[in-house]
Amino acid sequence: xxxxxxxxxxxxxxxxxxxxxxxxxxxxxxxxxxxxxxxxxxxxxxxxxxxxxxxxxxxxxxxxxxxxxxxxxxxxxxxxxxxxxxxxxxxxxxxxxxxxxxxxxxxxxxxxxxxxxxxxxxxxxxxxxxxxxxxxxxxxxxxxxxxxxxxxxxxxxxxxxxxxxxxxxxxxxxxxxxxxxxxxxxxxxxxxxxxxxxxxxxxxxxxxxxxxxxxxxxxxxxxxxxxxxxxxxxxxxxxxxxxxxxxxxxxxxxxxxxxxxxxxxxxxxxxxxxxxxxxxxxxxxxxxxxxxxxxxxxxxxxxxxxxxxxxxxxxxxxxxxxxxxxxxxxxxxxxxxxxxxxxxxxxxxxxxxxxxxxxxxxxxxxxxxxxxxxxxxxxxxxxxxxxxxxxxxxxxxxxxxxxxxxxxxxxxxxxxxxxxxxxxxxxxxxxxxxxxxxxxxxxxxxxxxxxxxxxxxxxxxxxxxxxxx
Length: 469
Ligand SMILES: [Fe+2]
Description:
Elements: H1 2-28, E1 32-33, E2 63-69, E3 77-83, E4 91-96, E5 102-105, E6 107-109, E7 112-113, E8 116-117, E9 120-126, E10 134-139, E11 146-151, E12 162-167, H2 174-185, E13 192-195, H3 211-224, E14 229-230, H4 251-256, E15 272-276, E16 279-283, H5 295-306, E17 314-318, H6 335-347, E18 352-355, E19 361-364, E20 367-368, E21 382-383, E22 389-393, E23 414-418, E24 422-428, E25 433-440, E26 450-455
Parallel strand pairs: 1-23, 12-13, 13-14, 16-17, 17-18, 18-22
Antiparallel strand pairs: 2-3, 3-9, 4-5, 4-10, 6-9, 7-8, 10-11, 12-24, 15-16, 19-22, 19-23, 20-21, 24-25, 25-26
Bound molecules: fe (ii) ion.
């Protein structure tokens, strides 16, 4: 009996030790925490008289020109710009090498925010464009016409290659300018930007000084006048300031940045979807109600059913607050939305979720945490090949503190994390493969500091994890 007791105690001890080792493997065997150290100087905003903020010359010259997709398929473009001296014209003149000059008429709007009055903000949608065609367009009249161009996407289809850029939390510091330059000079050549929220950070200035919305519009024009940026709202777009008498959330953002939300059956501009080439892109709002019975919940429930992977194999979701974030900054801020929607993302096999908010970079392995139901206590994320990869790309370069403080040890679900500024590209090759690369600002334009081959979850759902586990 005594001998049996000893051996069972030894066996029990072995089980305990093994269990401890296994749990260490689950908890500690994370991916890579990069040792790269960025510059130590503080990030500061570019001064108001910087060349990148320059007002274009001429009376009432259009400024802050920006475009975004104007329908669900990519045959329409919303052109927006601001005139300052007077309303001027709402007309966009446009043509391609194969078509005569045509005109489209839009509308303008203005708004006041505390002691700031906006310029005349014009929005004109051009429709019935041909796919995969370069169009030139002109805004403004008389001596202050300004000409730009864009290329429409190829027709939606399962094997259409397309390269998206990814930028988040850009702001308007010297580092923001570096991020944008690196994106522009990246030889991967992004064709449209998926922007994951937090544009100009005007709300970090006294009285939310909206002049910084205007400077940001002029700063980013060099990219967004030529290729569409797909907008997601972040917390810095809320501009809720009851102390200033400003109680309508998203007022500056909704006046300045229009999105084609009605085309996807959405009832508000904060959540919507588009198709572009072989991708179906769902944009969600971390700062609008998303609980059960809310408009966003009902919309997303219907929306996910509509995705036809034989038409658009790549299912991409954008949001601002990340669900999986192993930095201490903004920890758990995406948790309540994750609880609501994560089972759907696994069920519908979302390929990748891009978020911002945390001013750093992180990429997860495919894992889910959908078993937990309060009473069962199962609350550790598990590897799940039906789950998306979660990427936090809130490292555009704004002046708020770069998130450097990470939870230790690195959780198993975290494949790579680094507190540096940068951007990424998601380069779809065909229905099965996409190459993803993250570029830090300190490297050469072609260098990827982190990369991954994505295998499509619908057509090629084999394990594409990158950590040795
Ligand atoms: Fe944010």
